[in-house]
Amino acid sequence: MNESGFREWLRTNYKPNTVNTKLSECRNLSAAYGDLDEHYDADRLDGIMQALAYTAQDRAADRPNPSKLSIPSDLYRDLSNYRTAINYYRNFREGASRRSGSRRLDTDAVNKAMDEYDALGFDAFMEAYNFGSVISYWVLRDGKRYPSKAIFGVAHQFMPNGAPLDNEGCSGTDARKHLERLGFEIQTDDGQSTSPDRARRYWIEKTLVTGRLDREQGEHSLGRALWSPQRSKSGGDIYSNMRAVQPGDVVFHLTDNEAITGISIALDGVDDSFQGLAGTDWEGAAYRVALRDYEALVPKLERSAFLATEPFSTELSELAKSGAKGLFYNAHRGLNQGAYLTEATPTLLSILNRAYQAFAGQSLPRVDEDVVVSSAPAATGNSYTLDDALEELFLDRAEAEQIMLLWQAKRNIILQGPPGVGKSFAAQRLAFALMGATDRDRLGFVQFHQSYSYEDFVEGYRPTADGFELRPGKFVEFCRRAEADPKNSYAFVIDEINRGNLSKILGELMLLIEADKRSPDWAMALASGKVPFHVPGNVYLLGLMNTADRSLAVVDYALRRRFAFVDLVPKLSSPKFRSQLDQAGVSHAVINALIMRVGALNDEIALDTANLGRGFEIGHSFFCSNPLKLEDGWIWYERVIRTEILHLLREYWFDAPGKVAHWESELLTPL
Question: What's the CA gap between 151 and 155, in Å, rounded?
Answer without folding.
Answer: 6
